[in-house]
Amino acid sequence: DKTCMIVQAGCKLSKIKDCAEKYNRYFPIELASKDNCTIGGNISTNAGGTSVLKYGMTRDLILGLEVVMPNGEVYSGLKEIKKDNRAYDLKHLFIGAEGTIGIVTAATIKLFPKIRSKAVVIVALESLNKAVELLNELKSNAMEYLSSFELNSNLGFALIKKHFPNIKIPFDNAYSWYVIIELTTQSKNNLKLELSKIIKKSLRKRIILNFFQPENKLQTENLWKTRKLLNKAQKLDGPSIKHDISIPVSIIPNFIK
After folding, report:
1. Which of 129, 120, 127, 252 is nearest to 198 (CA)?
2. CA 212 to chain centre
3. Which DSSP helix (H) or strand (E) runs through 192?
4. Confidence of residue 242 (pLDDT cuts 50, 70, 90)
5. Gap between the Cα atoms of 82 and 150, Å rounded
6. Which single residue of 12, 22, 40, 166 has CA 20 to 30 Å from 28?
């Protein structure tokens, strides 16, 4: 059946994803730091990543935990059942608590069927309000497939170009705002055609200014590097202040302004 996996906290995220793939399964946390971060850290910080739209936060992917308490006792909750209506679900106290009330030492994590079809596009926009419009358009027409909606700016692209000159920058960074969109499914639906229809409709409605759909794996990887290498580019440029903000999507434009 392989709908879950039991892992120790020190297991790297990339190892978990590779192991799941061997059994035609998919573990959906997608982080640029997957080769270095551990599942214990992901649980401790309730990590998000680029697939939260479809699969949720780390909290949504945990079935059970083993935790060492401050007094040395071990909370053993490595259950493998999905239906459990017995009063309090204690695992949620430890997810996102950053080790303050107990140290996670192992976890039972959910697995999903392997992704069989995906489609990626990057679009250019004139404003953040247009990005919100585009997200609503996607939710109305392809909510069941929408896995990633990643915003970037001309400032972000400029940093990538400065510190990673070998990466081809989409549109030569001629616009103010950009969004990488990814649709995924476990079936064999033609998502490229589905995504093309939505994007062309958005172009006609002037929600977006331009778009580019990669034609091969290399172009797709290059496209994602403009987002995943952003953190490294910031570090190479010097100290930066970062925030992990949770606010309603509708007020993001005003918040950034």
Report:
1. 120
2. 21
3. helix 191-204
4. confident
5. 30
6. 166
Which one, of 131, 110, 236, lies nearest residue 181 by Cα? 131
Question: Do 57 and 29 meet the contact criterion of CB atoms below 8 Å apart?
Answer: no
| The model's pTM | 0.87
Q: Tell me how far apart the alpha carbons of residues 70 and 131 are, in angstroms, rounded to a whole number.
A: 45
Predicted confidence (pLDDT) per residue in 67-116, tens digit? 999 999 999 999 877 777 878 889 999 999 999 999 999 999 999 999 99
Could you say which DSSP state residue 171 is in? G
Q: Do 108 and 6 meet the contact criterion of CB atoms below 8 Å apart? A: yes
Residues in the chain: 257
Integer Cα distance of 123 and 138 in angstroms? 13
What tokens were used for 101?
A: 């009330």
Give the pLDDT confidence score for residue 244 in this predicted structure.
79
Residue 182's identity, in one-letter code, is E
